[in-house]
Specification:
- This protein is mostly helical and 196 residues long.
- The chain has one domain (27-194).
- It has helices at residues 12-27, 34-51, 58-86, 94-119, 126-142, 148-165, 171-194.
- It starts with 11 loop residues before the first helix and ends with a helix.
Length: 196
């Protein structure tokens, strides 16, 4: 005796969930590194302690530019590892391209404004500039990523605004709070909810 066919509605909810998850995965950049973000945060806290408060010396800026290079290397390696593990290609995927197109322009603005601040005697206000523009990059790029990423960008932007209003002597602690604390906190959330 053959079993009676299952009614179509028996698996409809499961099919709808599968379709929704597939579409969401295809439209979002999911290789944002959680554990990489945590490591970036740890290095930023160390650099904040080493650098001390911002001053009008090139030494302070050089220390933080070195940290930016280290953080970029960590992010690239962590994204590559996560993308390989999850099977989400970085170089050919439309979500990765959209993320990069939104993420890069604010960073380029920061690259242009850094020497402007440095040569006009505003070097001590670079924490506000960097936090604000990095936050803008994360928020705009994050529009093409998982939901928590734009929220992290908004938090960086708020810290950037606070850094412009705060005393100069707080600059390195605000950098530690943003590039350190926010990366660690949101990195842990991303690692737990979105796999590494």
């Amino acid at each position: 005796m053959t079993a009676a066919p299952e009614p179509i509605h028996a698996h409809a909810i499961e099919n709808i969930r599968f379709i929704r998850d597939t579409i969401s995965g295809a439209s979002a950049f999911t290789a944002v590194p959680g554990w990489g973000g945590v490591l970036m945060g740890v290095t930023a806290v160390i650099i904040a302690i080493v650098s001390g408060p911002p001053d009008n010396t090139t030494h302070w800026v050089t220390v933080w530019l070195a940290e930016a290079a280290i953080a970029a290397a960590i992010a690239l390696v962590a994204m590559t590892v996560k993308a390989r593990r999850t099977g989400a290609p970085l170089s050919t995927a439309a979500p990765a391209h959209r993320f990069a197109l939104a993420y890069v322009p604010p960073l380029l603005a920061g690259i242009v404004l850094t020497p402007v601040f440095a040569t006009t005697g505003m070097m001590t206000r670079l924490p506000g500039c960097w936090l604000l523009l990095y936050g803008t990059a994360v928020a705009t790029g994050g529009a093409f990523s998982v939901r928590v990423v734009p929220l992290m960008g908004a938090c960086f932007m708020v810290l950037g605004a606070v850094a412009f209003a705060a005393p100069v002597a707080w600059g390195h602690w605000l950098m530690a709070a943003g590039f350190g604390g926010l990366h660690i906190g949101f990195g842990l959330v991303i690692a737990r909810r979105y796999g590494g």
